[in-house]
Amino acid sequence: MKNERYSLDLAISLQDFNTSDWKDSIAQVTSEGYSAMWGAFSSSARIAIEQNRPEHSKVLWLLADACSMMLSPSSPNEPFKPFAVFHDRRSVIPEDFSKSDIQFFAEIADKVDNNWLKARLNDLVWLKGKPRNTKFALEAIDAYCCLPLDKDTWIHGGRDCWPRAITLARMLKNGAGDRLQKIEKAIVTAFNNSSNDDGFLGLWLSDLLKSNRLGLSNREDIAIKLESLARKFNHEGDLHSARAYFESSSEWYKSIPNVVKAAEMTVLVAEGWAKEALTRSASQDPSYMIAASFYENAIQIYRSVPRAERSKYQVDKRIAELRVHLNNSGERALGEMGIIQFPGVDITQLIAHARESVSGKSIQNALLEFVQLHRGVDAEKLREDSLKKMRQYPLQSMFASTMMSRDGRVIAKRPAMSLSGELTDDDEISINAEMIRDYGILVNIIVQAEILPALEVLLVEHQMREIDFIELAGQSAFIPKERVRLFGKALFAGYERDFVTALHLLIPQIEHLVRMHLKQAGAKTSNLDKDGIQNENGMSTLMTLPEAEQVFGKNLAFEFQSLFCNAFGPNLRNEMAHGLLDETDCNSPFAIYAWWLALKLTYIAWWNSANSTHESENDSDEQKVAQ
Questions:
Q1: What is the spatial distance between Cα 581 and Cα 284, in angstroms, rounded to a whole number?
Q2: 9, exposed or middle or buried, with CB in 10 Å at 0-12, 13-18, 19+?
Q3: Taking the complete model, does pTM exceed 0.70, yes or no?
Q4: pLDDT above 60: residue 570
Q5: Coil, strand, or helix at residue 392?
Q6: Can you give the three-state secondary structure of 439-490, one letter per residue?
Q7: CB burial class (10 A; 0-12, 13-18, 19+) of residue 596?
Q8: For 521-546, what is each residue's pLDDT tens digit?
Q9: Which run of H or E residues covers position 401?
Q10: Residue of 21, 173, 211, 442 with fewest CB within 10 Å of its CB?
Q11: SS3 category, 282
């Protein structure tokens, strides 16, 4: 990377570090965490440049760069990621530090008494030092574990530091001594000491234990504690927190295994959604659209109750009752919908508007604006416009056409349009092909003029991690619960502009999602071959089922078909399944739009949920998602 802040040949020493006033730089920081330290060191480095102190400036810039990186504890080999990535540049990563920089960090690491900085420097030396010295890994573990297990520290970076300590301890195996056992004990103790006043801290700590396969000897105690906290939240009317704790308690009961208690917790989660739906529809300012979403959540959760436990809680009867409420709320929600119209603008204005829409907002509101940049296609209007154009300019439509792939294969044929009074089946194929063609033009404009410019602003202003998207997917009624992590990983990859990874993760999960929702609606999603083998139908077949439009609506069903499984469009699902997508295809406007559409559907469902809670809970909700 080009460096204009200091000379790469400038030598610095321990003495320069000791006299650089690095302690004063971070003494004025009002919050914990690496982001705050990065800002403080950067500011002091600029002052040192102005005061003509080049050695001190380089020391402070190196410390700032070390603190700027985002910790990704799930990756043992690449634990540090750049905080910002653009098409032509990025922020610092470990590979940008020279051998002399790493030697400098090794020299000063044991002189640092700030646990955040001590952990980061030792971790970097362990990662990049040649040969590796386990002393630095042990020092990093010990420094990470000195960070308090409280809510504020967790929010400002402790959530990444403790998992990193666990990863390092497991990498060292016997070389880590009893550190892993001490880490487990510390987390369990902090969890046992947590209370409702700590908000989601107890939930976060239990998730840390579960995701790292720790606390197994305390499974029952953890499940009981989570249930106790959930019931208190429920009693206080904090339904959002109660649901989260009931759900976690259910998972811990399953791990014991205690199927009976797990089912009880699941029922309480479902009833929490039902209570919120009733609250939203009965309030002075009712929102039936949100209520309908909550009833859908409740039904989805109830369906996960094991068959053996259903009669005890009258699950089938309760689902039928909730379906009535869902239908009523859905009908009333139509009256809440309005049309938002914008004057026509050229692409320059679109780009400016997209950037302004997301700039300067909280991460929640910025993402909301981002996913609402485009309302979505109106399939009926698109059909009317396409048919009108075909009849107004009939020459092209009068001739049949053949679509060929890049390697010369015929992949689709569009019959000639009869243009008679009554439309034939062939006419419908032609109209559909024209609709998809026009849709493709629209997608290209939206991606180039709105999605990509807005995404660039989001990347500059907000640092989001993979776990944020996993948690977002976990709280979205749109996402199947067993596929939350895969959806979250796909959404995060797209957010980092890695659309190759995003597309390969996302497409199979969207097909699974389509199949699951159709099955729940009673559709037949499989076929029986001549040998009596039952095979699942692919997405192309699934989207032709009459239940598809009933479940997803005409507009979304059209978008799914056009993007993923129609040869007149990008046909992303089938092209990927047959290995026909290259890197350019994975970064095409269609691929980017597919990622954005998945994020939109996921986020809108979450937004409806998160904004149903009391205003006093909004800060906690925002923290949980923005972390």
A1: 52
A2: exposed
A3: no
A4: yes
A5: helix
A6: HHHHHHHHHHHHHHHHHHHHHHHCCCCHHHHHHHHHCCCCCCHHHHHHHHHH
A7: buried
A8: 888 988 887 777 888 899 989 999 99
A9: strand 401-404
A10: 173
A11: helix
